[in-house]
Amino acid sequence: MTGRLSLGLVQHACTSDPATNLARTTAGIADAAARGAELILLQELHRGPYPCHEEHASHFDAAEPIPGPTTERLGEAAAAHGTVVVGSVFERRAAGLYHNTAVVLERDGSLAGIYRKMHIPDDPGYYEKFYFTPGERGFVPIDTSLGRLGVLVCWDQWFPEAARLMALAGAEILLYPTAIGFAPDEPGDEQARQLEAWRTVQRAHAIANGLPLAACNRIGTEPAAQFWGRSFVCGPQGEILAEAGDAAAVLVASLERGRSEAVRRMWPFLRDRRIDAYHGLTRRYLD
User: Fold this and answer.
1) Tally of domains in the chain
2) Given 14, 38, 128, 154, which residue is catalytic?
């Protein structure tokens, strides 16, 4: 595709009140759209506090079906502003079956598709395996009126295989709704290393696949972490196009649609892959 694409990111803190959080989200969508954004990315699980700081069955009460209240509200916002919106839902698929799910709403408000998070962490403050079943649909881009979106979620952003498979399936941009932050007792130098690692690994995915990439993170102090924000957009050579700090922000960045084609002609990583020699990648470890 040619021309330019205006991409918006909405970064904010979350309270215990879903209505307040959705109001912040939709206000951010309106702000980004007013500034020309055609595609708007939201943070992970933006309807409420991050629930996975502990293992407690009561947190399942926050889950909802798809379609459901959040997709309805995001669809209304998408239609009102003529934008494509990528949101995030704690999905109740059935009793005892829940997912961490990204949703894509088309410019007319319809549901274009979903992506169920594939990589599920289980770390102090991030006990997601208690809550979320891994997605079974694989790494499949979602087609929209603005192009083919490679939507992934948070922990997925550390795995080069996920980004590569989205690229191989024709994704034109990589999008990561995210909730990540510092543990309260971590020293400053460790916090700095973690933040830089987070930025670096995603920029590397953009470079290795010749694709633009956006990560939208939440902010605020919650029991799990002090979420660091720093949402950003980078181009297909990892160049930073827009970046937020650790306060509420609405970013808007302009992407050159033809840039991936030009970059991949110079750096033809897909051409030079040795697919005949990668069999070991399907094994957990090469003992």
Assistant:
1) 1
2) 154
